[in-house]
Amino acid sequence: MKIKIDKKIWLLIGIVIIVIALVILFRIYTQQVKERDQLTIDLETQQALLQMLTTQENNQQEKLNAAESLLNTSQAKFPESVESIEYGEDLFKIADDCNVDITKITPSMPTSKTVGAVTYSVSSFAITVQGAMNDILNFINALRTGDGFQLPWSANVNSVSIDMGGEVTVASISANIYGYKG
Length: 182
Fold this sequence. Notes:
Blueprint: H1 7-77, H2 82-97, E1 101-107, E2 111-115, E3 118-131, H3 133-145, E4 153-163, E5 169-180
Antiparallel strand pairs: 1-3, 2-3, 3-5, 4-5
């Protein structure tokens, strides 16, 4: 026995298959549209975030540049190094030993000087002291001979200007202090 299927049933089966295929395609299409819309929203959000982060980066870069500029300005105002502070400690000790008062110390930026294979750190100082004439002369001699330096440094007194016009004798001394760099 052979069962014969009518053309109407075949047509109905064909229509059902086409409808099922269309429903499946419609669902896939709507799902992809939703995904595309969500991706578009995500992309816009990320672009806005990128723009905000770029602005923040530019602001931070400007702050960094301003801070570096301020640092450079500050370093130019305060050229003293740790060596200058250590020299200052020795200078105040020598002044105390000689009974003079240091009223002003102005250091310069240390430089390097090479003699043969030896490199020296050279710092120039302008020193103003006040006290009795003999005490000032003792201070100048202590600088010149290196008496009182706690570390292996030596000084070269370049010039001395003494003002004895007022109640107190004041001396302005220009000196270079040499330290061995090793």
